[in-house]
Amino acid sequence: MRGGYMSKTSFDIETVALTHRGLVREVNEDRYYVKRLGTDAMLLAMMDGMGGGPAGSAAAETMREALREYPPRASDPEKTLCDLVVAASEAILGMVRNNPALEGMGTTATATHLVNGVAHWVHVGDTRFYLLRCGELSQVTTDQTLVQVLVEEGRISGDEARTHPYNHLLDQCVGCPMCEPVTGSLRIEHGDLLLYTTDGLHDALSEDDFREIMIAPHASLEDKAAAFIQAGLGTGGKDNLTVVMAAISDPAKI
User: Fold this and answer.
1) Is the pLDDT of residue 106 over 90?
2) Which residues pair with 1 in a beta bridge?
3) In Å, what is the CA distance from 198 to each residue of 96, 128, 159, 201, 218?
4) Which of 150, 207, 208, 237 satisfies CB 3.0 to 4.6 Å to 233 for a cystine?
5) DSSP assignment of the chain, as one string?
6) Is 174 in contact with 92 (CB distance < 8 Å)?
7) Which residues, including other chains, have CB under 8 Å from residue 232's CB and lie 6 or more apart?
8) Which phi and psi (to 5°) does residue 246 adopt?
9) How many C-beta atoms surround the C-beta of residue 46 within 10 A?
């Protein structure tokens, strides 16, 4: 999916999103959502369902459907995003109460409202939001996992966390009894490249791999997204693979 808009702050934003079931899983439980909100804002989101097959897919879809209710002119983007995540979490819990066989159903979520030169974001779980600025890659969100606690305590490295046997144990998810989304914001600049991934990609590839793909000269945004999917498949494609990218540019230079 590709789209663009020119905002009141003179940014042009080009987007692309790709998803792949992978080479092992029978069902793709990942979901993404990219929507232009009028002429001056955009909503980008990534979800990774959990609970297995239809349950995980339904949880991720419930979160995506909740985001469709996001008002284009939200006065407090972070609170609005947080409220929609909590509403989706309560809806998922209700589904489980009605059908106990769905116990364990949930989803991760990372969503961003880009407006007036600011990225307002909400985050639950271990989908990720990255920023590439001036060739430097940084992870904006922090995984809400037990393994991340080990990293913060200095007991393992970030690279070791990628292959740790417990790296999929979440502290938080949309659908958990006590879902507590984290929110934040950052200023976006001309030349920024925003990246959103599910763990099928960031557990399979290193940040050096990410950066190499993102700075590839003469590659279009579509080429870069496709390169992420192919790289993930090249490591075995053991999980679903989803990538969303947004390139921030100066429309005067296009």
Assistant:
1) yes
2) none
3) 24, 7, 16, 6, 26
4) 237
5) -EEEEE-TTS-EEEEEEEEE--SS-SS--EEEEEEE-TTSEEEEEEEEEESSHHHHHHHHHHHHHHHTT--TT-SSHHHHHHHHHHHHHHHHHHHHHH-GGGTT-EEEEEEEEEETTEEEEEEESS-EEEEEETTEEEE-S---BHHHHHHHTTSS-HHHHHT-TTTT-BS--BTSTT---EEEEEE--TT-EEEEE-HHHHTTS-HHHHHHHHT-TT--HHHHHHHHHHHHHHTT--S-EEEEEEEEE-GGG-
6) yes
7) 20, 22, 200, 201, 204, 205, 241
8) -140, 125
9) 31
Q: How far is CA 180 from CA 16, 58, 112, 122, 167, in A?
A: 29, 20, 17, 10, 20
Segment 130-158, tens digit of pLDDT:
999 999 999 999 998 777 777 777 777 77
> CA 31, 32, 37, 39 torsion: positive or negative?
negative
Rounded distance, CA 123 to CA 253, Å?
Answer: 33
Q: What is the pLDDT of residues 19-44, one digit of tens each?
A: 999 999 999 999 999 999 977 689 99
Which residues, 6 or more positions from 63, have their beta carbon under 8 angstroms from its beta carbon?
31, 45, 47, 85, 88, 107, 109, 174
**CA 174 to mean position of chain CA atoms:** 13
Q: Angle at which helices 53-67 and 77-98 pack, to 10 degrees? A: 150
Look at residue 154 in the predicted model and tell me its pLDDT: 75
Q: What is the pLDDT, as a whole number, of residue 51?
A: 86
